[in-house]
Specification:
The chain has 30 helices and 32 strands. The chain has 854 residues and is α/β, with parallel strands linked by helices. The radius of gyration is 39 Å and the shape is elongated.
Length: 854
């Protein structure tokens, strides 16, 4: 006992020069007499108060004193030392006093500790509370910190409630009521008598009150208020033949819900309780009668996204929503909580709308083969790209039934109104062509002399990446991805591939060559100046023969496995390096995997960006990316009419594929077009036949949706990308401004602000992500916070405006009559810290009437 008294007194003397000790039960005199405190003089009060007072204040004003009285504290009127006692400290020896002393709390908090005595009986809880306490804490703040200890949270009301809601979400529902039992954390709050204070704070902070308050009831009330308050005339709601009044909570409740759902730590609990509350509130029935447009800014329930997507699918399919509107709605949904879960569906709907619009605007006419190639590389390729992106996102969503009607419509439009029509029109010029060329578009066999040789003339090294079946529209997307990388520049040109557009011939044409010939056998092999071009070893031989041993062919897999020194040594020992990448063709050419062709295209884009970065890290400055051929792909199974009506025949049949045959003395047919090797710029006597337009030839054991070898624009227009890496940064983020409205005064509980993106996003002017909120001069957040992405690519300034509505919290009342700051903040790259980007000042001038909700 003596040791505990000594410790408690020592702490008191750290704060006070004079300490009074009333031994009310007259049982601690021995402890007082045995007590030894360095630097402290002990005195006993026995009707000597006046003399002691003179000694304390006059004779020894710097000395520390412990004043002991055997008996209770005298009444104030009889206490000659009351003024000294009130100015200094008092030591008490009851349990509450000891706890107060251990926590370094003054006696004014006796009632707080007494009321919740059970809380302090565990040393662990007491120590946890002590770490949170501050010298200027009020009784309310101490109770809040006790709540924080009970819930394992930070000492803020929103953090306490978040932890209690998470516990509710994690608990198992009771079988008999389907409701959750009170969690262990809330049981502690009740056990320690803190529940009354907790519900008082819930009323003060969020406006929540109930005859039978509970955490579950609060959750339902919160979702009910935040959802239904967005609709006019919604004071009374009727769901499942039951009527209820929409509760009125404070603006802080709305802010709390937004922070809760955006919290990475608690989003799982939010999602669980959101689903349960949606069922209780009959949200599905309510959504059924609403227009999706009035839901665009709401994201409290997963059902909202399902409703919006379902209605958007119908709107796009029925063409009652414009492509521009769909793009805006999808962009707005990107800010929502559930977007990640439904991203592929939103993207698919957006691409479907873009595709339908672009097809409606397209004029699929041409006056020559060359004009067809040029128009395709400028405009029409976008339709193939939009179809690919739509199909990819539908597949990734896994929602074939939901997207069924829209998918059927897009497939019909793509196959019948675009692919077939364009193929038929282009075929008329293919039929009329005496030579396979489309000047001024370069021919594939000129690749080495036109694109590679100029680097060599300047003694520059060059790396060539050849991605099998990377058609032109994929090359266009790659162009954008490369340009988005800092310090990378890229240019894209169309090239007319060899015909037939198959791998062996395309790969051979990209090598240095004077003469190309299809071998007179059944392999389809192509000879480059008499040398077989089949396989990496033969291609290396051809490169080395043309480059005095300073050329090499390697696969992408082999190159990516090299370490930094190995890749640098490879580039150092060669003037030209050909890197062969094969994912799209490898996937699409097999019947069991052809349906994954568009997934392979997405993966290819990532592969090549990584290849380019690894090459530049190995000191490559000049990089070319191209393909051997393109492809046609239709996702749904083909109709009988998509196949050629006759089978190719001839004197000698050398090689058959789904889009071409090789042979000699081939029979003429109205559904097939024949070429001699000379017409195609080849040597030898082998003849080529291709089915007209987009028709296929039947081939056992082979798929028919992914094909190449024919003369459609999708197969024969291939990309050449020329990539360089610069020394200086060339990527910036788009500028954003806050547009000041008619008034700079805030007079209500909400503030609507327009943000303006100064220019369109491009490859080199990239999106900017900002956090927006309203703050006091002291830096306290007094509104909800918004994470905003500015990624608009429209040239129309009006379409680059973003409306943001801020809801003020109760803390805003403390700033009434003062200036507050609307602040846009940007995250420091690679950290969780923010810096100010831009700000705008407002004057807070709210009248008392703004406190009322009616």
């Amino acid at each position: 006992m003596n040791e505990r008294i000594a410790q408690a007194l020592t702490k008191l003397f750290d704060r006070h020069r004079i300490v009074f000790w009333y031994d009310a039960k007259q049982e601690l005199r021995d402890d007082f007499e045995a007590l030894q405190l360095p630097g402290v003089e002990k005195l006993e009060l026995i009707n000597n108060e006046y003399g002691i007072k003179y000694k304390l204040l006059r004779e020894q004003p710097e000395q520390k004193f412990l004043l002991y009285r055997e008996g209770p504290e005298p009444p104030h009127l009889d206490n000659w030392l009351l003024d000294v006692q009130l100015a200094h400290g008092e030591f008490r020896t009851d349990q509450v006093a000891i706890w107060l002393s251990e926590l370094e709390l003054s006696l004014e908090f006796t009632d707080v500790v007494q009321a919740h005595a059970e809380f302090f009986q565990a040393i662990k809880r007491k120590d946890a509370l002590k770490k949170l306490l501050k010298a200027d804490d009020t009784a309310g703040q101490i109770r809040l910190k006790m709540l924080a200890v009970c819930t394992g949270s930070e000492p803020r009301m929103d953090a306490v409630v978040e932890n209690l809601l998470q516990e509710l979400a994690d608990s198992e529902p009771r079988i008999d009521t389907n409701e959750h039992e009170s969690g262990e954390r809330f049981k502690l709050i009740k056990k320690f008598g803190l529940d009354a204070y907790f519900w008082e704070q819930m009323k003060r902070c969020y406006g929540y009150e109930s005859a039978e308050p509970s955490i579950r009831d609060f959750a339902v009330t919160l979702f009910k208020h935040c959802y239904f308050q967005n609709f006019e005339n919604q004071k009374n709601i009727r769901v499942n033949s039951c009527s209820f009044v929409v509760p009125t909570l404070t603006g802080d409740a709305m802010v709390f819900l937004k922070r809760w759902k955006d919290s990475r730590q608690f989003e799982g609990g939010f999602e669980t309780l959101s689903g349960e509350c949606a069922e209780v509130l009959g949200i599905e029935q309510d959504l059924a009668k609403r227009d999706f447009r009035e839901l665009i800014e709401l994201d409290y329930f997963r059902l909202i996204d399902q409703k919006i997507i379902s209605d958007l699918v119908r709107a796009v399919a029925s063409r009652t929503a414009s492509s521009g509107d769909v793009a805006i709605w999808v962009r707005q949904r990107r800010q929502g909580h559930w977007y990640r879960e439904y991203r592929h569906l939103y993207e698919a709907v957006d691409y479907a709308a873009q595709f339908t619009h672009a097809l409606g605007e397209a004029k699929l006419s041409m006056d020559s083969l060359a004009e067809g190639v040029q128009r395709y590389s400028r405009i029409w390729y976008q339709l193939d790209q939009l179809y690919r992106k739509f199909t990819y996102h539908v597949r990734m969503s896994g929602q074939a039934s939901l997207m069924g009607s829209l998918t059927d419509q897009v497939e019909n439009l793509y196959s019948n109104n675009y692919l077939l029509k364009l193929g038929d029109r282009f075929q008329t010029f293919v039929d009329a062509a005496s030579k396979w060329e489309a000047f001024p578009v370069r021919k594939q066999k000129e690749f080495f002399e036109h694109w590679v040789r100029p680097f060599l003339r300047k003694d520059n090294k060059v790396c060539v990446i050849i991605s099998d079946a990377m058609r032109y529209e994929i090359g266009d997307e790659l162009l954008s991805l490369i340009r988005q990388e800092d310090r990378y520049s890229a240019e894209l040109e169309p090239v007319l591939s060899m015909l037939p557009s198959y791998t062996q011939l395309g790969m051979a044409a990209l090598l240095p060559n004077k003469e190309l010939a299809i071998a007179d056998n059944e392999t389809g092999t192509v000879l480059v100046d008499g040398q077989s071009s089949q396989g990496r070893v033969n291609r290396t031989k051809i490169l080395q023969a043309a480059l005095n041993g300073r050329g090499e062919a390697i696969t992408a897999e082999e190159f990516m496995q090299l370490d930094r020194d190995g890749s640098r040594e490879l580039l150092k020992s060669n003037d030209v390096l050909y890197i062969y990448h094969n994912r799209i063709d490898h996937t699409g050419d097999k019947m069991h995997s052809e349906g994954l062709a568009f997934e392979a295209a997405e993966q290819t884009l990532g592969d090549i960006v990584r290849l380019v970065k690894k090459l530049t890290a190995a000191n490559a400055n000049n990089i070319l990316v191209t393909a051997d051929h393109g492809f046609i792909y239709q996702h749904r199974p083909l109709d009988e009419s998509d196949f050629a009506s006759v089978e190719a025949k001839g004197e000698v049949m050398l090689y058959r594929d789904r889009r071409f045959v090789l042979g000699k003395g081939l029979d003429e047919s109205a559904s097939l077009h024949s070429f001699s090797s000379e017409q195609l710029g080849l040597s030898g006597e082998v003849e080529v036949q291709i089915p007209k337009s987009i028709n296929r030839l039947r081939l056992k054991g082979s798929g028919s949706r992914f094909v190449h070898g024919g003369a459609s624009l999708q197969e024969v227009v291939i990309p050449v990308l020329k990539i360089n890496k610069k020394r200086q940064s060339d990527v910036t983020a788009v500028e954003v401004d806050i547009l000041r409205g008619a008034s700079s005064v805030i007079t209500s509980g909400q503030l609507a602000v327009t943000m303006y993106q100064a220019g369109p996003v491009t490859d080199k002017i990239q999106p900017r992500v900002l956090r927006a909120g309203i703050y006091t001069e002291a830096g306290d957040l007094i509104s909800d916070s918004h994470d905003l992405t500015f990624d608009l690519s429209s040239d129309n300034p009006r379409e680059r405006e973003l409306q943001v509505r801020f809801v003020l919290t109760r803390k805003a009342d403390e700033a009434n009559g003062q200036e507050v700051i609307l602040r846009l903040e940007e995250k420091h790259a690679g950290t969780s810290h923010y810096k100010e980007y831009k700000s705008l000042r407002y004057l807070m001038r709210r009248s008392f009437t703004s406190d009322f909700d009616f």
